[in-house]
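Record 1 of the preview.
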Amino acid sequence: MTTARNTQTSSGPLAGLRVVEMGQLLAGPFCGQMLGDMGADVVKIEDPAKGDPLRQWGRELPEGQSLWWSIVGRNKRSVTLNLREPEAQEIARKILSTADILIENFRPGTLERWGLGYEALQQLNPGLIMVRVSGFGQDGPYSQRAGYGAIGEAMGGLRYVVGDPSTPPSRVGISIGDTLAALFATIGSLAALHERGISGRGQVVDSSIYEAVLGVMESLVPEWQVSGYQRERTGAILPNVAPSNVYPTRDAKWVLIAANQDTVFGRLANVIGQPELASDPRYATHGARGAHQAELDEIIAEYTSSQTAEDLEAALEKHGVPAGKIYRPVDMLADPQFRARESIISVDHPVLGPVSMQNVFPKLSRTTGTVRWPGPELGQHTEEVLAGIGITDQELSTLREKGLA
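->
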């Protein structure tokens, strides 16, 4: 496994870009992570009392360290400032005066109360791009509501279609609403950066969680509006698309098989020793297989249950049938495809030693991003960053005595 070395040198495509990150948890900071992964200098401003709550999040906290924070905080420089206080707000303005992008995910109106709204900052730095991530967006009747990722997932339509039809709506096992909003925020920030190269002016990027979820919901809305069709929860299948499901194996694993195309189904029929299924009127066409989906899945599952996952996958690959095991971390770490592409790397952590984590995606052929260090200690770079804007050691000491930094 490739080991990422801690270095201050950035060679990614966004090297030279200064990003200031305010806010906490995931919806804003994941945007900062992606920009930092691509080489931007990301200065994260945190409350000096406790910092980003994500520093304490995660089911496992070895030696009190959040593994989640080691990823979301990677490639960032941590500066502590109590932004509720005017003196700290003035220091933030100095930092922002030379920044390219500001990321924030407070409730709309918070930065305005602190004198750090876009109109004020634009007077200071006309080229500044302000990326605002929130539950419901910066305007509209819901804008002032508390907007967590789960609420955005529900409102955007995702929660209703996730899970088995026999159960209440389920959740995806990750904070998908937050990360989708961060992805859209990242796209918006890069688009605004390109436009600034033409106009010389910054602008606001307004990314809401519910709209980010809505944005990936395919044809959900027009299906209802035009034809009255309401998508429902379908578990591991897509209705009338067969066979395309997860199937059990003899060694208690699961293999996903996607053989719904006619020619591919013929190859699958040969693999399971029943080539006659390919010409059986019940299964010969896409429509027929969809109409007999449940019974076809039973036939396939009976065969897969007699095979180990490894043998099954090998047989399916040999016959050109798209298939793959349902991966867990242990499978990822052992997989040759992950190793060949360095999809997972080992990053030196100052407390935990080597920590495995996902690499930077996507890869660029000449100036790909890198993981230069894991999430920093709270305030680790305060002195370094503030010295860069002319704050002396004595002034910093006074700030700390007042609880401002």
